[in-house]
Each structure stands twice: as structure tokens, then as C-alpha cells.
Specification:
mainly beta, Methylamine Dehydrogenase, Chain H, four-stranded antiparallel β-sheet, 1 helix, 14 strands, globular, RCC1/BLIP-II, repeat, Reg_chr_condens, Ub_ligase/GEF_domain
């Protein structure tokens, strides 16, 4: 949890950590100026007021964005985004997102079911990658919602695109049970 002063408190167990679970909130040392925080299934992403993105926890699928799979007990700077101008961060089960001031969306982590928006490429991404199909259309992303196995993006025109696993109709646009790594528009009823 990030408080109103930019400090972060955590409790419970950090996935992959050898440390004993914290039974009460404890201030996370060495991290200040946090303006946004997102928690995945077993990892966390923070955005600092200087635009730096930090990640920690379980990184088995690259969801920490550090270039190699592995776990981190304490926050580490996601260097690949250091000059990107990030203004928002999001976390899904095993993937993460960052949105820049220029409205570019980056995703990284587990690629299974196409949840990273890279078309037929379902490989895990250890570093942030642009959402290929959406960006080629000139779409400017303003927000993202990441589920366990799918992703939805909102653009500046209010259009929602989705991609990833579609069991139980979670993409809102393709036949139930199908998955797609290609972002596509969700059409809402009038």
C-alpha cells in the first residue's frame, strides 16, 4: 500500500523470498516518492514521482521487467523504462504494464495466451515491449486493465481493445474459448 506521502508499506509474504511473512504492515525501506502502485499475483510494480518504475517479488516469467527471470526481495529499477516518461503502471497475474506520457503502452512478463499483445508471439518478455498492433494504428493508450491471462486497453477516444485468453468471454469480442494475441476492439451495445 502506498500512503499519501509516497511511502510504501507491505505485509504477508514476498513470493520467492526466503524472508518470513510479515504479519503487520512494515515500511518498505529504500523507496520514496511513490505515486502509483500495482500488485500482481506474486509481484509488485511502483511508479516514483521522478518517473522511475520499480519492481519486486516473483519474476519467474519476466513480470519484473529486469531482463532475466528471477525473484527480488526489494524494489529494483526497471532500467528499460528509465527514459520512457511513464505516468501509470498496472499489474496482472503474471504480467505488467506501463503507460507513458506519449500514450504508448508497454507490456512484459508471461506471454501465454497472447496477453502481451504481440500477435502470434506468445513468448514471455523479460523486458517491456510496445503493444505492437495497437501502436501501429496510431492509437494512444490512456489506461490498461490486466487480468490473470488477458489485457484490456482504453484509448483517448474511449475505445477499449482486448487480447489474451478468452475463456468465459473475458475478451468481449471473440468466440468463447478462443484466445488471441492481436488487440481488437470491444464493441459495446448502443
Amino acid at each position: 500500500v502506498a500512503d499519501g506521502t509516497g511511502e510504501v508499506y507491505q505485509w504477508g509474504q514476498i513470493a520467492g523470498s526466503e524472508k518470513a511473512p510479515a504479519r503487520a504492515p512494515a515500511k518498505l525501506r529504500g523507496i520514496r516518492g511513490v505515486v502509483a502502485l500495482a500488485a500482481g499475483a506474486f509481484h509488485a510494480i511502483a511508479l516514483q514521482d521522478d518517473g522511475r518504475v520499480l519492481s519486486w517479488g516473483n519474476g519467474d516469467y519476466g513480470q519484473l521487467g529486469l531482463g532475466l527471470p528471477g525473484n527480488e526481495d526489494a524494489p529494483v529499477v526497471v532500467e528499460a523504462l528509465s527514459r520512457a516518461g511513464v505516468v501509470a503502471v498496472r499489474a496482472g497475474g503474471w504480467h505488467s504494464a506501463a503507460i507513458t506520457a506519449g500514450r504508448v503502452c508497454y507490456l512484459w512478463g508471461r506471454g501465454e495466451y497472447g496477453r502481451l499483445g504481440q500477435g502470434d508471439d506468445c513468448a514471455d518478455k523479460q523486458r517491456p515491449v510496445e503493444v505492437a498492433e495497437v501502436m501501429s494504428e496510431g492509437t494512444r493508450v490512456v489506461d490498461a486493465a490486466l487480468g490473470g491471462t488477458h489485457t484490456c486497453l482504453l484509448d483517448e477516444d474511449g475505445v477499449v481493445t482486448s487480447f489474451g485468453r478468452n475463456s468465459l468471454g473475458r475478451l468481449g469480442r471473440v468466440a468463447d474459448g478462443k484466445w488471441t494475441g492481436t488487440p481488437g476492439r470491444v464493441n459495446f451495445p448502443p
